[in-house]
Amino acid sequence: MPPNEDILLLWSLFKQGEWDAYTKLYNQNFKLLNNYGYKFTKDINLIEDAVHDLFIKLWTNRANLGNPISVKNYLYKALRSVIFRKMQNQSRFTPMEDDYPFLFETSFDLVYIANEDERLLQDKIKSVIQTLPHRQQEIIFLRFYEGFSYPEIADIMEINVSSTYKLLYKALNSMQMSLKLSKLVIIWAILSQINKNAKIL
């Protein structure tokens, strides 16, 4: 069974009140959600509280939940809202701010890169991404590192689909100007490293 069908079945069983399905859904997504939450704040307690609050709400309201096309997309969007609300309550930022906090980090260093030129390129890409506005960092993370589609990103970031294209274009254009490389080379370098990381995780 394809991964997406598997998690949709798990979601369906969870909605029916099966505790095992609920705990499996939690365990399968806990690390991913914590990793995403860590992009917005380094407050581990806030992140874990947000994830726990999200899953408590899911269980409480399970009978009224719909059937999302992508469970991962649904969870990311929901967690993002919970974290933003908690941060707002702590006066760390206001929802009207366009450039909310986003701390881009990658696990490039997990893989030993034999080619020195490739290693230097990966380091440069990481450094340049970290200089981008936070919204641009987030869309690069969601698009390339999490593999979300443009409609899914629009849903998570609460913007329209055309804005996701424009936002990603701006990010890649800024990287192109900084790195003096074509957009295709930059995308290839990012995806190449992601594939290497995936093989060892």
What can you tell me about this protein's structure?
With 201 residues, the protein is an all-alpha fold. It has 2 domains: 4-91, Rna Polymerase Sigma Factor, Chain: A; 116-199, Winged helix-like DNA-binding domain superfamily/Winged helix DNA-binding domain (Arc Repressor Mutant, subunit A, Orthogonal Bundle). It is 70% helix and 0% strand. It has 9 helices and no strands. It has helices at 3-15, 19-38, 44-60, 71-89, 116-129, 134-145, 150-157, 161-179, 183-200. Helix 4 (71-89) packs parallel to helix 7 (150-157). The two termini are 21 Å apart. Residues 108-114 and 196-201 have low confidence and may be disordered.
Q: What count of helical segments does DSSP give?
A: 9
Beta-strand percentage? Answer: under 5%
Number of β-strand runs: 0
Q: What value does the Rg take, in angstroms?
A: 18 Å
Please identify the top-level CATH class of the largest domain.
Mainly Alpha
Overall 3D form: elongated
Helix content: 55-70%
Characterize the main sheet: none
Distance between the termini: 21 Å
Q: Could you report the average pLDDT, rounded to the nearest whole number? A: 83
Which secondary-structure class do the elements indicate? mainly alpha
Question: Helices, strands, pairings?
Answer:
Layout: H1 3-15, H2 19-38, H3 44-60, H4 71-89, H5 116-129, H6 134-145, H7 150-157, H8 161-179, H9 183-200
Pfam families: Sigma70_r2, Sigma70_r4_2
GO biological process, one term: DNA-templated transcription initiation
Keywords: Sigma factor, Transcription, Transcription regulation
